[in-house]
Amino acid sequence: MNRRRASRVLALGSLVVAGRVWAVAPAPESVNAVEPAEGSAYDPIGRRDPFRPPRASPATATGEPRTPLERYEIGQLKLVAIIYDTREPRAVVEDDAGLGYIIKVGTSIGLNGGQVRAIERGQVLVEEDSVDFYGDRHPSSVVLQLRTSERGTR
Asked: Domains in the chain and their CATH numbers?
């Protein structure tokens, strides 16, 4: 038998590949599959269904911000760009570190549960909950505006 043919031969208990002989241990006959005891069944009570997604993320359950935009007060963000003449307008806001975030209508923003309601030429309207002196929550509107030097000539 030549070397080329020997590289493809599988002998009982050994494997010959590229002229090298590799030992292959036979499977022990005493190994069997583990079967559950008779009468025992899986009890799903108190266990999460592994095929369904979790209901709430841990950050949502603890009240921590879910996105980086929810870590800042709205006044700490600077509006730097707007694309308003499209089907779905978008804007870019920057944090104090200079990182830019793209926002659109419906984006959560700010520490007080704010949400972008409208993006118009030169401004973004954000609606958030404010708490008064008595602890009552009232919706309030905050307008982020482009600075006049940043608006251009139009």
From this structure: 68-151 (2.30.30.830)
